[in-house]
């Protein structure tokens, strides 16, 4: 076996190994043991060869020992960054596609990874389906690339092995005389092109060449040099016959043929010089290779799900549009579109329906565009658009309005009628930026401004938005330091039994003693915590602080009161929440009956069975459970039967509607009746007037909290109020 044959077999083996589910070798790199174990379990059942590494040095050792088809790489490692590992691979020519997984929210990390050749960038937390789909797509792309290399290697090997084995050759082998007429052709021509060898003998080669390739063929075939450079390679499209064998018309069905032609010299009589005698050629069918190359090239620049340009192709087209706009001194618009409520559809109907929705959205958006506009999918439910050659801003506004109007119509997902909207940010060149990154960033900032103002609309970028964005970043950085600097504090709003006037409980509310902005309520900083992955450490702090404060109250000889804390859905989803709760109670010696966990109705619909299991554990421990803001979410009476609920809290939005104690407020009466019928404790929130209190008490609600009784107060003041009540 020669070297080329061995190379072809090696390439074929690589192609088989990287096929999804057929033994592809994958390196998993993450310094978080739980995430690494979860990732390993997710991929273990798919017939992959999995190798794990918990730090950069382990990853480099594995890369030095083994060849990997795919590397799933965390950017943040204890000893080096994922970017350094990718630089190591690139410097040493180590093969293998890289999927970067990171919790970093900044765009620089993603750009750095993609510049280093990463196949994709997944932001933590990612969904199971998103990860599996990305892994399958990466391996599929690798398989296609290796298939292409295998085909090329086989073609090259076949040329050397069978060039002169004409009778058994898989290629068209031919000879031409000095006039370019066919003097010999093997039987392969009939299998590939549909012509018999008899009818081609004596005909000029040009009758087989596609009209657009005639000049290229003439240049290649007219070679008359008889030195070592006489060999000529050219790719030509040859016509294929359709119909009966005697039909001499040619169809438009074309086959790509690679040709290798060599001049054949003959000695002239009476002279030492050689005269041109004819041409010997081998025509090989490379149609499959061309198609494979086209597929690989197309997939590299297009989104597989929606068939839209991906972010790479979009940036190329935006760059060209910017150059043209600069040359013509014209304006262009860049739009950033984010679908509203898409996550809800994905969570309730599943990712398959979510993908169908994205495909339908892409078709509707394309129908709204002008000729020359480019629509691309950035990823997830985000789309970008470039609108070149604007007359004025009204052109961009008109297209954005068309987008919103087209999305307003319901979507049909196999019988499920779904309604969504979109938030659209618009940046105009050159006023809002002169580079690709500036335009995209400013359009993104404008889109988030629409989100903040209620979604379902569009907004043009202006500089004040950038200032607000910088303030958010500064607030996020300060919030990260607030935990380290002990700037957070628990405040408590007492809950009063109006029949006796005594405090029977309190709701724990977080406050931030900001060094510049003063005391901030939870609503001013918790949304940033949820967006930036800080809810888990903040919730850990809140649980510990609440139990610590209860211990101080109990040590001061206080009477029995129940403190409640609001539980974030992200915190409940974490598997160790129950252990955290039990550990805090034991650490401070708190009776579980003194703690009540408040959940929102949205927790119930995210993963009902899992929520039931977690809440049942709390109840067995002795901790009670309350539904906060009852009636404002996706209410279902079945939740009250299935979930271990002890308390219902009437949302303050319903209480605010009470202006007359003699009025009729059926929603409040219905909630009170539900609580009474199910034997649940009832608390009204946001009570601010005597009329509200009298109506609620007359209707059957005797426990209330609100400014009418107490504002949220610090622990010291809360202890003082309880001690005064006891005295």
From TrEMBL:
Residue list for modification 4-aspartylphosphate: 74
Listed PROSITE patterns: EAL (PS50883), GGDEF (PS50887), PAS (PS50112), RESPONSE_REGULATORY (PS50110)
Domain EAL: 472-726
Domain of life: Bacteria
UniProt key word Disulfide bond: no
Domain GGDEF intervals: 330-463
Keyword annotations of the record: Phosphoprotein
Residues in the signal sequence: none
Keyword hit for Nucleotide-binding: no
Domain Response regulatory: 25-139
Pfam families the UniProt entry points to: EAL, GGDEF, PAS, Response_reg
PAS domain mapped to chain residues: 158-229
Record protein name field: EAL domain-containing protein
Gene source species: Janthinobacterium fluminis
Lineage, highest ranks first: Bacteria, Pseudomonadati, Pseudomonadota, Betaproteobacteria, Burkholderiales
